[in-house]
Amino acid sequence: MRKHKPRLDAIDRDLTKAGKLLDRAGAKLRDADFAARRNVRRIAEALAYISEIQFEIYAARPDLLPDSLSDTKFGAKVLFNKRLERPDARPGARTRPGSGGRSTARH
Predict the structure, then answer these.
(1) What is the domain range of residue 15?
(2) String of DSSP letters for 14-73
(3) Bridge partner residues of 103 (DSSP)
(4) Is the pTM for the entire model greater than 0.85?
(5) Which of 7, 51, 57, 97 is at a distance of 20 to 30 A from 32, taking alpha carbons?
(6) 3 state DSSP class of 97
(7) Residue 3 falls within a domain, yes or no?
(8) Residue 92 pLDDT > 70, yes or no?
């Protein structure tokens, strides 16, 4: 039998559930005062990684974007499917690594 490829909507649902569980665990760690500062920071980092993955999912599948994000800059970017670019960047101009986004194209 052939395995089914996981769908982005299912992955997004799992990540949302994981985020809620981590959020609750962070609150419990804080309330229990169990190395709260260090452990809550660790959970916050995990939540940030989950958000990054979900933002990539929403960029690929704008239809999965939650309504709560549709009126944000990120939501506008996803819904209009445009990349945020510097105003002075020319189309097709490449940037050098570590150049802070400065174009390598000669003017």
Answers:
(1) 8-80
(2) HHHHHHHHHHHHHHHHHHHTSSHHHHHHHHHHHHHHHHHHHHHHHHH-GGG--HHHHTSH
(3) 95
(4) no
(5) 51
(6) coil
(7) no
(8) no
